[in-house]
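Case study B.
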Amino acid sequence: MTAIAGFRDMVTRNLRQSGIFVAFVAIVLLFSFLNSNFLSPGNLTNIVLQYSYILILAIGMVMVIVLGQIDLSVGSVVALTGAVSAVLVIRNGAPWWVGVLAALVVGLLVGMWQGFWVAYVGIPGFIVTLAGMLLFRGMTYRVLDNVSLSPFGGTYYDVANGFSTNGWLGGYGVDVFTLVIFGVAVAGYGVSQWRTRRGRIAYQQTVESLWLFVLRLVVVAAVVMWFGYQLAQYRGLPNILILLAVLIMLYSVITQRSVFGRHIYAIGGNLNAAQLSGVKVRQVTFWTFVNMGLLASVAGVVYSSRMNGAQPSAGNMFELDAIAAAFIGGASTTGGVGRVTGAMTGALIMAVMSNGMQLMGVPQSIQQMVKGLVLLLAVAFDVWNKRRADAR
Amino acid sequence: MDHSNILEMRSITKTFPGVKALQDVTLTVRRGEIHAICGENGAGKSTLMKVLSGVYPHGTYDGAIVFEDEEVGFGSINDSEGRGIVIIHQELALVPYLSVAENIFLGNEVRGSGPLIDWNKANAEAARLLARVGLDENPTTHVSQLGVGKQQLIEIAKALSKEVRLLILDEPTAALNDNDSEHLLDLLRHLKEQGITSIIISHKLNEIAEIADRTTIIRDGRTIETIDMADADATQDRIIRGMVGRDLEHRYPERTPEIGEEVLRVEDWTVRHPTQTDRVVIDRASFHVRAGEVIGIAGLMGAGRTELAMSVFGRSYGRGISGRLYKNGQEIQVRDVDEAIAHGLAYATEDRKRYGLNLIEDIRRNISAAGMRRLAPRGWVNGNEEIKVAEEYRASLNIKAPTVMAVVGKLSGGNQQKVVLAKWLYTEPDVLILDEPTRGIDVGAKYEIYTIINRMVAAGKAVVVISSELPELLGICDRVYTLASGRITGELPVAEATQERLMELMTIERETAKDLAS
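Model:
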C-alpha cells in the first residue's frame, strides 16, 4: 500500500531491463580497455553499418516472440529478398528503387504466406517457419541460379554504405549536420522524458527523485553526443542510422501505444483471456507475421546493399542472431513479455561482442561459444528473476 | 453381507490458509457396499477424497483413517493405490494417443522376463479386464477414438488391474448419456457382487436412490448424516434438505428492485459440443433479462451453465449454434466477442486465471484489455487516460493493490475478481453475465462483489448471475432459472423459490427434462 512497495515492485519489474543495460555498458567498457581502437570513430561507424540488419530483424522478431511464436525463416527471407532485388537491378538493369520495392513486396508475400498457415490453419509458427527456412533458401538458389551477383553500385549501394547527408551544413573535419541532428535528438529525448515525468506526477505515479532524473538525462545526453561527435569526426551520419532510428521509434510506438501492439501482448500473455476480451487473435497473428516478413525484406535490402551483391548463402543463421537478441533483451520464452528497446539492446550486445572479438582476433569458434553462453546466461537470469519474483 | 467396516475416516479436519475445508468429518464405509456421498459444489467432498487418497499427505490434516482394520497414513496417491484404494476423477486421466492397453497399464507396465514390456501379455491381460467391465473393444485401439462412456469403463478396468479394494468414483455419470450411465451403474452392481466396495460422489439423486446402500451428506465441510437407503424415510427430499439446509449466515446487501424494459432475450438457443458434434449441450434454452434486474441461472456441474453463457457471448463455445438473440426488442447477430462487446454484452468467466486475466500483466492493462474501443477509438492508446481509468476503478471497486502497475497474478482471488469486473464495467455493458462471480473468494470480498452487482443494476444494467451456491442466488437475484442437462427446467421469481424447490428442478433427469422442454 505504500510508495516503498510500489518502488520495490518497479525495481523488480525493471530489473531485467536495467540489468541488460548495465551488461551492455560493461561489455563496451571491457572491450574499450582490451582494445584501444574499439571506441575509435571508424570502428563505431563500422558497428552501425555492419550489424544494422540484426537490429532490424530483432524488431520484428521481438513482436513475434511476444506473441508466443517464433520465426526461423528470416535468414532465408533476407537472402531471397536480396536475391530478387539483385536479379532485377544487376542482371536486368532496373533502377535501384525497383529492386527495393520488389524486395519489400516479396517480404510481404512471404509474411502473408506464413501468417496464413500460423493464424488461419493453426500450425505452430515453429513448424511453419522451419518449413519456410528451407523453402525460401531453396527459392534463393533458384532465383540466383546458384551464383552470386554483384555489384549493385550507385544509389542501391549507398543505402547501407552511404553518408548522404555528410557536409550539408559543412564543417572542418567534423560534420556539423550530424552534430545538429544528434543535438535535436537529445533535446527531443529530454523534452519527451520531462513530459512523461510530468504526466506521471499528474497521475500520482511513482517517479524517481529529481536529481536522479536530471543525472540520468545528463548521462544519456553526454553518451549520445559523444557518440555523435565520433561519427561526425569520421564520415558523418550513416544513412542506415537514420533508417534504424526511424524504425525503432516507429515500432516502439506501435508496440507500446497502438491497439494492435496491445493485442500482441494480450495474446502472448493469455490467449484465452485475449479471445474472450474481443481480441481478434487470428488477425493479429497474421499481421504480426506479415510485419516480420516486411522487416526481413528491409533487412534483405540493407544486407545486400552492404555486401554490394547477393549470394545464395546470404543471411545464414541470421534468425538465430535475431532470436538471441530478443531473448537477451528480456523477451520471455513463453510470450507476453518483451520490448523493442530491450531487443535493440540485446542486438547491440551481440553486435558489440562480435565486433570486439573480431578486433582482438578471437577465432570464429570462440566467438560462437561466447555468444552461445551469453544467450544461455541471459535467459537463465530471466528464469531466476521470475522464480524470485514468484517466491515473494 | 458382513457388516464390518472397510474404511473409517475419523474426525477429519483439513485447513487451508484462511478456510476450514473439512471440520470433524466422519465417514464409515462397510465392506462390499456402494456408499454415496452427497453435497453441494464446494461442500468438501473432493477435499475429503483427496485426504483419503493421499493427494493431501498424512500430516497435513487432523484425524485418523482406518482402512481394513489398520490405521493408515498415505503420503501420496501411490501409497493409497498400493493398498487398493483407487479414485477415478471426473476429468478422466487417460492419455488420448495411447492404446487402451497402454493406458490400462500406464505406470504399472506388464514386464516379460527382462526389463522390457511384454506387449502380447499386456494386450491379453487388457482384453480380460475389458471383458470384466463389459467393454467390447480391441486393446490396441487408441483411447481418443472412444467416447466418454467407454473411457470411463477403461478407467475402471485400469483400477481393476491394480487389485482394487475400494473404488471411488467422482461424478462418474456427469458427462455420460443415459445408456452409458445405466451401463456404468450396472457395472458397479456387478463389481459389488464380486466384493468390491465403491464410493460414488454424485449430484443425481435418482441415481443415488437406485444404486446406493447408504448415503453420507456433507455440507460446509461437515458431515450432516449418513442415511441407510433401505429406510422408509430415506427420501430424496431428506437428502436435499440435508444438502442445502444451512442457515443463511452470509448476508446480502439490501436492494429495492426497480425493474424496467426487457434488455436481452434468448430464444430456442441450441448448442452442440465443439468436438463431439452429435452431443447437444444446450437444448432449446430461452430466457430473458430486464433492465435493473438480476437473474440467476442455477444448475449443477455439467448442466451447461457456462456453455450457455459463453455461446451467447460471441459464440465463444460450441458449434452448430442456433436460436435467436434480441437486444431491446431488436434481433441482433453476434458472431464473435468483438460484436458481443459492441452490442453491450459482457461475460466475466468462472475461471478467471485461465480465461479472465493476463496474469503476467499489470492491473492497468487488464482493466483496459476489453475496452480498447473506448480507450483508443482511433487505434492509439492514451497511456495517461488508461492509468486514470484504472485508478478510478481501483478506488471505486476497492481493489487492494499498491498501484495499478501491480501485476495481477500476485493479487488475492477477490481482488483479481474485482479486476475482471472492472475490465467489463469499462466496456459500458448493458447486460453483464457473471459466471460464478464469488468462487474461491472470502466472505468479505463476496459481500463487496454483491454490492458492486447492486450498484450495476441500480444504474439500469441487466445482470445474469450463474452460481452453484443456491443461497447466493436467492440472496441477490430477482428471478432464477434452473438448468438441467442443457435444458431450462424452471423459472421462479425469487419470492417463490426455495433451495429445496430449486434443487428439485436442478436434479431433474435427462428424460424428464426432455419432456419438459418439448
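Chain A has a mean pLDDT of 89. The remaining cases will be described in the next quarterly update.
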